[in-house]
Structure formats: C-alpha cells, structure tokens
Design a protein that fits this description.
single chain; 425 residues; alpha+beta; Helix Hairpins; BirA Bifunctional Protein, domain 2; 2 domains; 3-stranded antiparallel sheet
C-alpha cells in the first residue's frame, strides 16, 4: 500500500511514476481530497475537545468551582454532543483512504524499463545456449505420458481440468527436486518454514492478494479461509503487526507448499501439461531487509534462484520486467525464463520481486535500528526458488533424448536415485 504522506508531499511525482505502469492517475486527486477532508474532520474534533478541556480548566481554577461548573454545564454538554457527533468522521475517512490506497499498485523503481507489456521487457543475461536437437522436440506432456510419469487423464477424472497426477519416477522426481531446492536454500542461509496453506482474509489482504485478486483464489466461505496462491503469503505475514528487534535483519525464509489458483490462462494456451495448474507445488524464497539494502538483496535473491537452474544445467535467461508488466505489489521484478525446445521459446519459471515497503505498510511490519529508535517499515522481497512442476517441464524438454528417454542432471541423481527416465514397458 502506498504512503499517503508521499502522495501529499509530491503528487506530481506519484502521478508520473504511476503513469509508467499505464495506471489511471486519478487516484492521486481522489486520495488528496479525502486526505484534506480527513485532516479537517480531525482538526474539528480535536478543536472541540480542546474547548471542553479549556472549560474544564476554568472550572478547576475558579474560586467557586460549584457555581462555575453550574454556569458552564450547558456549554460542556453541548460540546460533548458535538464531540460525539464528529468522533467517527475522521475514522470513516481514514478507512476510505485505506480502502482506496489498497486498490493502487506499488510505484515502480526508477531502474525499471519503460513499456506497457511484455514486449518491452529487457533481457539482462543468459545462461547456456538453446540446444539444436537432431530430432523433433516433443512437448513435456507427450514425454511424460510416454514415460508413464504424468497422468492428466486420471487427474481430470479425480478433479477436473487443470490438474495433473505424477506417478512412479515422476513422483520421485518431484520429491527429489523439492529436497534439492530446500537443501540449497539452507546452504545459502534460509530458514525453512512449514506454513499453513489455509490462511485468513486479513493475511491475504496484508500481502496484497485481496481484494485485487479475489476472483483467482480458492476459498472456504463458511470459515472465510483461503488456500494460499503461494507460500509468499504466509511467509510474509508471519511478522504482521510486529516490530523486529535491532540486528534482526535481514531475515531469509524458504518454504515448500502446495499452491492453489483459479488459473484461467490465455485462451487455448497451456491447457495441457504442468505449466498452468489449479494446484501445484513450489519452493518460495522471502526476504525481510532494511530499505537501503533491498535493491542489493533483489540481486542476491534472483541469483539464489538462478543458481538452481545453473546447477541443473538448464538453459535460461534473466528478464527485467517493464513498468507495465510488473505485478501489483512489486516495485521491480526479474523473471527467470527457461528454454523449451518444443515451443522454440523461453517460458517463465520464476519471478523475483522487490516489494519495497508496500506489503510491510499493509501488514504493519517494522523494525528498530536501535533499542530506542523509532520503528521503520521493512522492505519485503520474494521469489520462486523454484516451482516443482515447471522445473519438471524444463528437465523433460531439455533432457529429452532421441530414443524418447530423459537424462537427469548429475546434481539431482543423489536425490532421485536414477540418471535417466525410460519408458515403462
């Protein structure tokens, strides 16, 4: 959520930055008008209280307090009525400001490329070169079905469309990938968390998921609990309404969780396979850091995710998202994209974002630089490190062999117990 004092202090700058996203900048004048009204209402209420306090002081200083109290009683009673009548107005206006600010995306960082859609995204660096195959590349779902490790038909029988079932070597591959990712995160200083996957409405709101993305969430209306779309939600909200002690930051958390989204997807795109499912597993990385270090930490976070792809020998590239393609809560985002031979293109496997103080303001997450220092909002960062299904997609497609088998990267062999997946006869 944006800081109303920033909008008040430099509305033109806020308009200019918001316009880079292609956002409607009318919110600036709307928020300023509400802010003026709220401050005027608060001034009126405080003025009435000051008048009452002055009359009360007059009574206390009078030589005949009883007579003075009797004389001023009608005035005090009238002030009490006016104070009661105006007390709710500042609160109501502040709530309206909060609701309006909650609908506005984060301001993008000055280093973010200009542009309104993915066509303006900028490739920052590449790892490896797309391989030239001596045979026609098969898509991962064909490979998975032929190898007997992906069963979409039975998953559809169980749950409907956009679900997948992994079996045999596929299930073992998923388990091994998860352990590999978590072990590497631990080696890089992350603390592993096993969070709930059902969270409250307040938790969803505090991390920017509501009300913007409500239609994409699975929820139990009776309990008003939501299935998490990503472990970013519980990991970030863990410290909601807390003041972190001096010396605590940075904090690095990692979690493996199931994730749930009502994935509509582009018409006719990604309707097969593992790329866009309603339920999937993902390892998530979350940072809490001091504001002056968050830009540097985004680079480290992105490299933590990229290092996994490099150790697996997967061809990928890093893309800086342009202003119009960045997510709601992010100020700057790098996407990691892996090469898929069957599609002859790169596809996203991870997004790593610096959310600055946007989530922390909603969630009330602050820290102290010293014991008596005034609390300051932290900066939060998050990134996939990595999704299990999309990693399987990349491994199948980039590891496919002419005989239909799939080669397993050496780094994964200790985790899965095999170096190749071959068709089950």
């Amino acid at each position: 959520m944006l800081d109303v004092t920033l909008i008040r202090r430099d509305p033109d700058a806020v308009r200019a930055i918001a316009a880079r996203r292609g956002a409607d900048t009318a919110f600036v004048d709307e928020v300023l008008a509400l802010d003026r009204e709220a401050r005027a209402a608060l001034t009126e209420w405080e003025g009435l209280k000051a008048e009452k306090n002055a009359l009360t002081a007059t009574i206390a200083q009078a030589s005949d307090r009883r007579a003075e109290a009797e004389r001023l009683r009608p005035l005090i009673a009238d002030l009490d009525r006016r104070i009661a009548a105006t007390a709710e107005r500042p609160v109501e206006l502040e709530e309206r400001i909060t609701r309006r600010l909650a609908e506005i995306p984060n301001l993008v960082d000055a280093t973010v490329p200009d542009g309104l859609d993915e066509e303006a995204n900028v490739v920052v660096r590449r790892f490896g070169e797309p391989q030239t195959l001596s045979f026609t590349a098969r898509p991962h779902w064909e490979l998975g079905e032929a190898l007997g490790i992906i069963d979409v038909e039975r998953a559809t029988k169980l749950s409907g469309s956009r679900f997948a079932l992994l079996r045999g070597a596929g299930a073992r591959l998923a388990r091994g990938i998860s352990s590999f990712f978590l072990d590497r995160a631990a080696a890089r200083g992350y603390t592993e968390i096993a969070p709930p996957v059902l969270v409250s409405r307040e938790t969803m709101w505090s991390t920017g998921q509501l009300s913007k993305f409500a239609d994409a969430m699975f929820t139990d209306t009776e309990s008003d609990l939501f299935l998490v779309p990503t472990a970013e939600v519980p990991l970030t909200a863990m410290h909601r309404n807390e003041i972190l002690a001096p010396g605590t930051l940075p904090l690095q958390y990692v979690a493996l969780s199931s994730c749930f989204r009502k994935e509509a997807g582009a018409a006719g795109r990604d309707t097969r396979g593992l790329i866009r499912l309603h339920q999937f597993e993902k390892v998530e990385l979350v940072w809490f850091t001091e504001p002056q270090h968050s830009a540097e930490m985004l680079e480290r976070l992105t490299q933590d995710a990229a290092a996994l792809l490099e150790e697996l020998g997967l061809v990928y590239r890093v893309v800086a998202l342009c202003a119009g393609d960045i997510g709601f809560a992010a100020a700057k985002t790098y996407d990691l994209e892996v090469w898929l031979p069957s599609q002859n293109c790169y596809r996203e496997i991870s997004s790593c974002s610096n959310c600055t103080d946007f989530q922390a303001r909603r969630a009330g997450i602050r820290y102290r630089t010293a014991a008596q220092a005034k609390p300051t909002l932290v900066h939060t960062l998050n990134g996939s490190g990595l999704p299990i299904g999309r990693t399987i997609v990349a491994l199948l497609e980039q590891g496919q062999q002419a005989d239909g088998s799939v080669r397993i990267p050496p780094a994964l062999i200790p985790y899965v117990g095999f170096d190749r997946i071959e068709a089950v006869l």
